[in-house]
Amino acid sequence: MSLGLPATYGAQTRLLRRPADRWALVALIAGAFVVVPQIATDYWFSAILIPFLVLGLVGLGLNLLTGYAGQLSIGSAAFMAIGAFATYNFELRVPGLPLLVSLGLGGLTAAAAGVVFGLPSLRIKGFYLIVSTLAAQFFVTWALTKFGWFSNHDASGVISAPRLVVAGLDFGSPAGRYQLTLAIVVVLTLAAAQLVRGDVGRRWIAVRDLDTAAAVIGIPIGRTKLLAFAVSSFYCGVGGALWAFAYLGTVEPHGFDLTRSFQILFIIIIGGMGSIAGAYVGAAFIVLLPLAIDHVAGALFAGATDPSNLQNLQKILFGVLIIFFLVKEPDGLVRLWRDARARLRRWPLDT
Amino acid sequence: MAFFVEVLVAGLLAGVMYSMVALGFVLIYKASGVFNFAQGSLVLFAALTFVSLVERGLGFWAALGVTLAVMIAIGVAVERAVLRPLVNRPPMTLFLATLGLSYVLEGVAQIAWGAQVHGLELGITDVPFEIHGVFVSRFDLVAAATAATLVATLSALFKWTRAGLALRAVADDPLAALAVGIDLRRLWALVWAIAGVVALIAGLLWGARVGVQFSLSLIVLRALPVLIIGGFSSVTGTIVGGLLVGASEKLAEVYVGPLVGGGIENWFPYGLALVFLLIRPTGLFGEPAIERV
Amino acid sequence: MTAPAPLLRVDHVSLSFRGVAAITDISFAVARGEICALIGPNGAGKSSLLNVINGLYRPQRGSITYEGRARRAMRPRDAARAGIGRTFQNLGLFKRMTVLEILMTGSTLARRATLIEHLVPIGRARREELAARARAEEILEDLRLQAHRDAVVGTLPYGLQKRVELGRALAGAPRLLLLDEPLAGMNHEERQQMADDLVRVNHALGTTIVLIEHDMGVVMDVSDHVVVLDYGRKIGDGPPAEVRDDPAVIDAYLGVPHGEA
User: Fold this and answer.
1) Which residues in chain B have their CB less than 8 angstroms from residue C47's CB?
2) Using alpha carbons only, what angle is made at residue C124 by residues C123 and C129, rounded to the nearest 5 degrees?
3) So what's the ipTM on this one?
4) Which sequence spans correspond to the domains of chain A?
5) Domain coordinates of chain B in residue numbers?
6) Global pTM?
7) What is the pLDDT averaged over residues C113-136?
């Protein structure tokens, strides 16, 4: 009699072991593609879903670097910026280049920059490493603003993003932008999940946890770290391009500042470092919380509060949440969710 | 030539200001091994509180006293709410916690005291005076003197008092320190309180210089290269590092800046710090970590 | 007939830390396929010696000759690639991984698939992953760790963690195993089993073993060759029986049983 348990190693190492989970994932993705465009409004697309997806993607990128490989980075916004501007320039200067190819090239440019700014990680460990990514953050924003070539010498400094046309289809509408973003995000996330489950992910974790031991079993520390920087920056770069093209509609260095880098860091702290899903949970939180605060404040105080105070309240709340998660649950919301689910599964046998 | 010296001197004095902020970091790092990202927010909070009290009619010394008390209270509260639960966690976690703390402090400061820019009068006239043909700002000199006094006091504290010795023990190994009976909680509360006082002094001086505004908290970003270059755990290092950063920043901006369009002072210190890190990872005066397998 | 060249030779190695000598002028040889025990009081420099052999420390003087190549020091990664496996006194485990994951990292050197290949669950990357999994399962069985396959290693008792660490070293199919107190933290029965495991690995796979150990019973039973260290110097070197009766060794380390002196 078969117990329905996965019988081969192949079956055991699948992404989601239980058929129920696999069907759930398929349903989720299918629903996101087909059902959501039917019911969501333009506002939802433009203000909630697209930023959620993009921030999740960038958070995923940072998670690969900081959560899995243990290399602290506060420069994710800089790599977003590089991705955005590189994609813009490829689109602009290479006629006839398909959008997806430009996106890929933009990501690769960001990846190359990631490797450059990741080189110090070969000599510097732990907390000191933030100097490198901070330097990247400041340098990149400065360079992109200073040198007009990046913005095609546009005097206003605000460039509008090129049209989103893939294979002849125009994805310019809110629903279209959503679907394009969703497609890219799904593909990249599945790729990341695959990467992380196998040897690459394990090497990253080994280097993070105890790099002397990692070296002793043959892991090339330097190459592993740089690979993390490269892959992470690729994701941040593609995310940045999507942020500019699919969300904002403009390409400018302003939104890729230190505050954005901190925001991404918060996403993975709250969502859960070292987990793929964590980035999306955190992103959802970051996107929805300000809206929730606005609504609650609006309901409670009926417009008597000053919007800047709400912003400050939000700041305080974020700060408290960060401390709370670091103290109580360093693995973030994802761990809380998993624990709850596990407990639910065992209930009422578990007392 | 005189111009060069002027820029140099201005840079050095600016560097002294950086050092003062960095001092707060060193304090906390020496005692708990934590890089307190919230130090900048503490500076802002201190300055804002003081200025708002003065604006509301409190006299200079009364306002100072109240702000002092508030800063010490914050120090104790932080120790209770943030440090204690996170004792013996990896430094990255603690750093991230101070990041969260900085957000809380900023949010509270702005709700409590508003977000406008305030002017701060300390009664020090900024009349430049001339030494051998070089113009030096009197204000900067006063700041430098204050910083020097602060540094001397803190160095003495660390070297010659029992509290100082205990602090160093705790920074090395909190659990071991506990084992020999050092009262961690009181010590940390003390340290954070002192850091608050340092923040207040730095806040007052910075506030008088640039006005008390939100961007004051970004000073922390200036202090980081200072710490990297000088060494996180060295008070002397902060001074040297500060001078180096201040001077090189100004000189670079004046002499190299025009070549690349200016504005390089934002990232130049970081580039410098990066170079230092690659050559001397623990900074000029820092202590190298001993790793035993 | 000349004896075959030793697998490992340590020649006049001296190591000091900031002027404090840890190891002074130590030379000995380890024959291929033998079990060599490194014994001596605490602080004698045994762990440092192992660290020198696999490249974690660079000696000020002397050389290590491994498989015919003489070097001042290898880099740890090169040592791994040359087939040297290592366990640590204070455990060098990746605390948050499960036992299975750790065993799978042990065979990371055998991977050839590139990054792109790792992006999809088909092809070479997948084959190598399944092979690593099979290897890990073998070791789980050999070392009786199956019950703990999915346990996060940081939550296991010290003795079990030691076994996992040995398993990880074995997963790399090493030709030379450097073990730092592999039996520490185990009760008597576990020690016997672990000693049996080591002998089995040595006999079945021909793996040369150099181990630091304090349990004299095990040392005498299991080893072919014993090297004794004291204050960083070698004070004994030979077959177990000979070393056991050496007066210098008895003085420094072994002592005599009560009632016999």
Assistant:
1) 293
2) 105
3) 0.89
4) 20-255
5) 2-218
6) 0.87
7) 88
